[in-house]
């Protein structure tokens, strides 16, 4: 379904945030017979619905909101509406036509799009692809889940998009190049279970992409793909990291060396994998990666890591504080912990308790020496899951500021204090940015104490 297909139809846009606002503006330009916006989660943080938005579509809530959704020819839901929402379950049971702004946009732009998803690494990988394409003289527009709704993007010849599982779930067109960086259980409460999450995530590759590029070293992704044709970065024949002629790790394309691993300023093996995927995408798009390796090396060296993803705060006391607040699952925290292997480490965990299973984190830390500090709400349960590990010291404190204060006392001067919470931020904080702000301020305040 395209935006143009909404002409003359009754349309209900579900959600009044950035995505909902973009959808109302875009749909109104295509002359629907009737257009209404529905917000079932209005609160004191909601932005005013006024001016051109209110003129294009009245905003309704409560019981009337569901009635307007049920009466519409087409419901355009925002990505934040979970698959498990009772209204959505009922609408689907009634056979309602439900789509998203992402799907409407993709129907018109798929052939010009590189779409990137993954349980971890999608933001960094999509950013690397866009950055390297620009360096290689292939201009592009970067957007998606990073904060710019697709329906707000300008017209362009090439797009690079980061796409969440929520955005992927309603696609009926795959991008020309579909990229998957990793796969592990995440957002299960919103999707209805692990199988449903994988289904929604991999819907990105379910509608005829010209090329599929994946992280070939991810075990769950390998199981889910089976023998499907795909470029598997990280494995022989594609972009990999291997020992170079000088005895140090180098990025290669097949057996051809490109540049040293040291060129990439991002820490961690997972970021090596992200760059391998990005290089494989460029190769698939026809960029002569070997011929342009010097240009690409300069671009890689200048790549700025994304905020809130292993962002380091160097401290005069010799400690390295690391903001990895977007690590909202145990698997993401495990990647972050691995990035600082070999250094004394204190990890701060805890946030909204979604009932996740922290057994994988326990197994991952079984033979590691570190300190784990739990903060509300899930921190105590995470710490309890680690009970009995002989080389893991655990503590529970009342808040993030107390955790930073304790971490300063127990972490050696050359060590790392890692905020990798393995849980989302909402409930105790406005959003993940707010959690990062509190962490950074606590680092500064305890330094001065």
Which structural class do you get from the secondary structure elements?
A: alpha/beta
Number of extended strands: 20
CATH architecture of the largest domain: 3-Layer(aba) Sandwich
Rg over CA atoms, rounded to whole Å, is: 23 Å
Number of helices: 17
- CATH class call of the largest domain: Alpha Beta
Please give the oligomerization state of what you see. Answer: single chain
The CATH superfamily name of the largest domain is Mur-like, catalytic domain
Q: Return residue spans where pLDDT drops below 50 for at least 5 consecutive residues.
A: none
- Outline the biggest β-sheet: 6 strands, parallel
Rough outline: globular
In helices, the fraction of residues equals 25-40%
User: Could you report the average pLDDT, rounded to the nearest whole number?
Assistant: 92
The CATH topology of the largest domain is UDP-N-acetylmuramoyl-L-alanine:D-glutamate ligase
- The N- to C-terminal Cα distance equals 59 Å
Widest sheet, order of strands: 7-8-6-9-10-11
Q: What is the number of domains?
A: 3
Indicate the proportion of strand residues.
15-25%
EC number: 6.3.2.53
Domain Mur ligase central: 116-281
Function: Cell wall formation. Catalyzes the addition of L-glutamate to the nucleotide precursor UDP-N-acetylmuramoyl-L-alanine.
Catalytic activity: UDP-N-acetyl-alpha-D-muramoyl-L-alanine + L-glutamate + ATP = UDP-N-acetyl-alpha-D-muramoyl-L-alanyl-L-glutamate + ADP + phosphate + H(+)
